[in-house]
């Protein structure tokens, strides 16, 4: 390994740490504001048709798709991922692939009392393969926080 390779690897690790910290902050705020949707089917419903009692799909600002190696072999899940990604790309919604669903579960379930969507079906763990973060209105603090995350990601 050369010095340049070592330095580049160090910079990449620092950048990933910043993205991880920003994502933790975004998820924490979304949980406290109850602007998070958890689950592939719930996400598809939210993205498909605006429901008066819930947020508008235009207010979705971030889509997290979490899968581990076992999930890569689940054809149905991959089809859902493809459809959700296509919708997000078409509507300028940022997509982040998460390779450690366990860590995502820790972030979301630490405050499971923050939202009813996370506590429903106590016998069965929630489907964390897709998580949508929304803002109540465009231009809110949630969007500003997300834009700062985007700056970390792009910078």
From TrEMBL:
Q: Could you tell me the keywords of this UniProt record?
A: Cell cycle, DNA damage, Growth arrest, Nucleus, Phosphoprotein
**Keyword flag Cytoplasm:** no
- What is one GO cellular-component annotation here? cytoplasm
Q: Which Pfam families match?
A: Ribosomal_L7Ae
Q: Locate the Ribosomal protein eL8/eL30/eS12/Gadd45 domain: which residues?
A: 21-112
Q: Please give the biological process terms from Gene Ontology that the record holds.
A: DNA damage response; regulation of cell cycle
Q: Where is it chiefly localized?
A: nucleus
On the tree of life, the source organism's domain of life is Eukaryota
**InterPro entries documented for this protein:** GADD45, Ribosomal_eL30-like_sf, Ribosomal_eL8/eL30/eS12/Gad45
Compartments it resides in: Nucleus
User: Record's PANTHER family?
Assistant: GROWTH ARREST AND DNA DAMAGE-INDUCIBLE PROTEIN GADD45 (PTHR10411), GROWTH ARREST AND DNA DAMAGE-INDUCIBLE PROTEIN GADD45 ALPHA (PTHR10411:SF3)
* Family label: Belongs to the GADD45 family.
Q: What is this protein called?
A: Growth arrest and DNA damage-inducible protein GADD45 alpha
UniProt source species: Balaenoptera musculus (Blue whale)
The upper taxonomy is:
Eukaryota, Metazoa, Chordata, Craniata, Vertebrata
